[in-house]
Design brief:
mainly beta; Lipocalin; eleven-stranded mixed beta sheet; 43% strand
């Protein structure tokens, strides 16, 4: 039976029940007690979330995901801070701006802002760029985030060590080092087709050398976004996207050098 690379990548996605406690540990807040009571709306890595501070001291964060994940506890005011679950391993603080009416926290380099506006809980998306030329995609791109229907999060949270896309002269190359896949995938000289702003190519079969019978073909589409990033979507029976930023040959070579000792490479030149 052929393996499905995309499914293997998705297997590395942290379940939100695993991500949520990690987020909770990173909250930091300064607050005026009278102003913080009630509901606050935010979005954690693509998932709508409602944080509630009740006047009786009850605290909760509810996530609108498949598992309806919820964190609960007790909050108290200490000087200019709100402390949740004081004296436990799950204690956390919350950062409040009374003038702006925001609760702000950071995790893994990402900033999350809760406000009183329910619209703030909606997933933030970047529009596809218009009037894109094929040459706009030339160069080396590195995956910084992974996007699924429910989650948009830093790549390393998915076990994605490195994913690079190279585009040059109607050819594409793909380098993937992902914990949940079987070895390194390093493929070059893939024929590309550019149409209506989308660059398309396929991996699988002969592209995978001696492992050609082990993997299902994957359709790959790359589109430019308005913020200058590139979204590369891989599809077989499942679908996953990588949000990529411009990188360099030096960075890609350094990434490859780090895993030279790994076995089971899939290569094709």
């Amino acid at each position: 039976m052929k393996k499905k690379i995309v499914a293997a990548v998705l297997a590395g996605v942290l379940a939100l029940t695993g991500i949520v406690p990690f987020i909770a540990e990173t909250f930091s807040v300064r607050a005026e007690e009278a102003s913080v009571i009630g509901e606050w709306f935010g979005n954690i890595w693509g998932t709508p979330a409602v944080m509630t501070l009740d006047k009786d001291g009850a605290f909760s964060i509810k996530y609108d995901n498949k598992d309806k994940t919820e964190l609960t506890g007790k909050w108290v005011q200490k000087e200019n801070q709100i402390l949740v679950n004081e004296g436990t391993d799950d204690d956390l603080l919350i950062d409040y701006d009374e003038k702006k009416e925001t609760m702000t926290t950071q995790s893994n380099g990402e900033t999350f802002v809760f406000t009183r506006d329910e619209e703030n809980a909606k997933k933030k998306t970047v529009a596809v760029a218009k009037k894109v030329k094929e040459s706009d995609m030339d160069g080396i791109w590195k995956a910084e985030k992974v996007e699924t229907d429910e989650v948009l999060a830093p790549a390393d949270l998915f076990g994605v060590n490195n994913v690079f896309l190279t585009v040059d002269d109607k050819k594409a190359g793909l380098y993937m080092d992902i914990d949940s896949t079987d070895g390194i995938i390093d493929i070059s000289d893939l024929e590309t087709v550019f149409s209506d702003g989308t660059l398309s190519f396929k991996i699988g079969g002969g592209n995978l050398g001696e492992k050609k019978d082990e993997y299902k073909d994957i359709e790959c589409d790359a589109t430019m976004l308005e913020d200058g990033t590139l979204r590369m979507t891989l599809s077989d029976a499942s679908e996953i996207s990588f949000i990529m930023e411009k990188s360099t040959r030096k960075d890609m070579d350094a990434a490859k050098e780090q895993i030279k000792g790994k076995e089971s490479q899939v290569t094709h030149d």
